[in-house]
Amino acid sequence: MGNCHTVGPNEALVVSGGCCGSDYKQYVFGGWAWAWWCISDTQRISLEIMTLQPRCEDVETAEGVALTVTGVAQVKIMTEKELLAVACEQFLGKNVVDIKNVVLQTLEGHLRSILGTLTVEQIYQDRDQFAKLVREVAAPDVGRMGIEILSFTIKDVYDKVDYLSSLGKTQTAVVQRDADIGVAEAERDAGIREAECKKEMLDVKFMADTKIADSKRAFELQKSAFSEEVNVKTAEAQLAYELQGAREQQKIRQEEIEIEVVQRKKQIAVEAQEILRTDKELISTVRCPAEAEAHRIQQIAEGEKVKQVLLAQAEAEKIRKIGEAEAAVIEAMGKAEAERMKLKAEAYQKYGDAAKMALVLEALPQIAAKIAAPLTKVDEIVVLSGDNSKVTSEVNRLLAELPASVHALTGVDLSKIPLIKNVTGAQV
Q1: Which CATH superfamily does the domain covering 49-161 fall into?
Q2: Which positions of the chain have pLDDT values less than 70?
Q3: 10 Å Cβ neighbour count for 233?
Q4: Phi and psi dihedrals of 217, rounded to 5?
């Protein structure tokens, strides 16, 4: 028995061996194949694109200038049966890195050999031709390996002696010189051509301005004629319009006056009705209530008048009664006071000087209190005197003058009373 093997489009499947020692080989890509157990062998090889970067350092050109060139190549194993068989014979069992190394060495060898046959200018200035030449020379050799060169380009070219930069400077100077000359010649030609164009433009402009002026003058004349005619027609139309407008305004005003007259008549009628309504309303709401209120106020006023009269009579009677009672009280008090005074006078007359003296003695404390009343407001009295005998003499003098002061105030002579006389004499 055996197995069914499948393979994608990016791989190739090689089935070798078979029954009875067959040397038949089957190459399949993007499909399937049958392999017998124990007597068939299956191997795979990649058909994907391989990117190579061949590099040749310090390779002398035909002029002996050492250059370093780097290229980029895209290669893959070809799928034609015969070429695929060749590739399988040489690379089957190897990995992609080994295949890349073999193809890279081949490309670098051809690149080195072609560099020795070309000049620096040919290599640097025409890289596409150089890459094409390398591809054409290397293609047969790698093709015999079953490898196809899909593309080959020169990535970089440089040297270590500044040959390329010097070449570029020379070429740049030549190009700059030619460019300056070309610019100067172009500016000269442009100036000449510009002057000629300006002259032609001015000539054409003058002719055009002349024609424009003639056309403008004719246009203005025609426009004036048209404007005059239009103004006349416009004035006539405006006058007719104003006359018609005045007539219409007159009619409208007349209609408005008639409308105002009708409105005024209606307004007068309405106002008359309103006056009647107002009059009735005043009668019902103001006059009748006012008359009722006036009658009520009159009755209240009459009642109040009677009340005030009665109150006044009662007050007068009250005052009269109080006056009579007070008069009786005053009369009784007067009689009592008169009787008291009469009795006191009789007592004074009976006792004579002794009664008067008693009255004076009763009044002396009150007199002394009145005299000493201002001194109650004094907190402290200081007598400024250094002589004790003088203070004593002053006190004795005041006591000696006391009977004279009492006699002047009351008419009673205390010096005639024996007790007072002895006291005052002793004090003196």
Answers
A1: Band 7 domain (3.30.479.30)
A2: 1-3, 5-6, 8, 10, 16-27, 30-31, 33-43, 162-172, 175, 286-287, 290, 292, 347-361, 363-364, 367-428
A3: 10
A4: -60, -50
Q: pTM of this prediction?
A: 0.36
**Domain-wise residue ranges, the chain:** 1-48, 49-161
Q: Are 30 and 24 in contact (CB under 8 A)?
A: no
User: Cβ distance 159 to 66 under 8 Å?
Assistant: yes
Residues 329-352 have pLDDT tens digits of 788 887 887 787 777 777 666 656
Whole-number Å distance between alpha carbons of 140 and 290: 144
Whether 52 and 134 have beta carbons less than 8 Å apart is answered as no
**In angstroms, rounded to a whole number, what is the distance separating the alpha carbons of residues 185 and 174?**
16
Q: For 59, which DSSP code?
A: E
Distances (CA, A) of 215 to 181, 202, 204, 206, 211: 49, 19, 16, 14, 6
SS3 for the chain, per residue? CEEEEEECCCEEEEEECCHHHCCCEEEECCEEEEEECCCCEEEEEECCCEEECCEEEEEECCCCCEEEEEEEEEEEECCCHHHHHHHHHHHCCCCHHHHHHHHHHHHHHHHHHHHCCCCHHHHHHCHHHHHHHHHHHHHHHHHCCCEEEEEEEEEEEECCCCHHHHHHHHHHHHHHHHHHHHHHHHHHHHHHHHHHHHHHHHHHHHHHHHHHHHHHHHHHHHHHHHHHHHHHHHHHHHHHHHHHHHHHHHHHHHHHHHHHHHHHHHHHHHHHHHHHHHHHHHHHHHHHHHHHHHHHHHHHHHHHHHHHHHHHHHHHHHHHHHHHHHHHHHHHHHHHHHHHHHHHHHHHHHHCHHHHHHHHHHHHHHHHHHHHHHHHHCCCCCCCCCCHHHHHHHHHHHHHHHHHHHHHHHCCCHHHCHHHHHHHHHHC
Compute the 3-state secondary structure of the chain and give helix, strand, coil in percent, each to the nearest 5: 70, 15, 15
